[in-house]
Amino acid sequence: MPHAIRFHETGGPEVLRWEEVEVGAPSAGQVRLRQTAVGLNYIDTYHRTGLYPVALPSGIGLEAAAVVEAVGEGVTELKPGDRVAYAGGPLGAYAEARLMPADRVVKLPDSIRDETAAAMMLQGMTVEYLIRRTHRCQKGETVLWHAAAGGVGLIACQWLKSLGVAVIGTVGSDEKAALAKAHGCTHTINYRTENFVEKVKELTGGAGVPVVYDGVGKDTWDGSLDCLSPLGLMVSFGNASGAVAPVNLGILSQKGSLFVTRPTLMTYTAKREDLVTSAQALFEVVGSGAVEIEINQRYALKDAQQAHRDLEARKTTGSTILLP
Hints:
6-stranded parallel sheet; 7-stranded mixed sheet; 27% strand; globular; Rossmann fold; 10 helices; 31% helix; 16 strands; Quinone Oxidoreductase, Chain A, domain 1; alpha/beta
């Protein structure tokens, strides 16, 4: 029988278990997948800890590349042998084999390797909707991106550079600053040694930025609002440092009639057509060479506990994959 990582209670990495699972044949509208590479993402830790509650026991993981083994009734776009990838629910990507709704899976072009796909789908499509739809970044703009050396950040820096957008990126070390700059980040701020609000004001001549992209959460919320120009947009898309505390909306008027959004990839790709459009945009920018996917860590799937420990300790850079 195939194995999968599952958890029966919320908590630290130690709750993740390597278990045998029964997969079975696909029902109508489903495909059975043999997974070839699995993506590791920070949202996985939110499910594991209970920050984002799920019914237990549960699988974990939202992203993988795979080969279709069988298709259920009514599935016409996919056939056995097709290389595919996905990023989104239902949970359970940390598995050797699984069932997936066929309309949540996209075919991989020949130009994209399985490991690359597993490393980029969730992070890359997150960048796509953030910079093309949540705020449509324009040539000549300057934006602030927190955690610029992370998996999402490195993709964003490259993609934004290709659009002619300057990126001010926060990082946690000089090594991460060098990594971000090597991937197109225009200016880096080491938040451990510099005040990022003061530095953003300095770099923008006091004007601030039209948009802040923040996957960090609690630790950067207040400062991020102070980095925005009047009518600026605060995009809070993650909680790596913890959830943002309840907000007095009056602060938004005091700081310049600001806008705030808390978007998710799941909402932006809920419609099949939006999922396919987002994936195609990602395939094109990676296929053109404008964005290179950095897989800087590989773990055996059964070692998911250690992968989570390293991710939460901020020991990882770029993308991380788990190999069945």
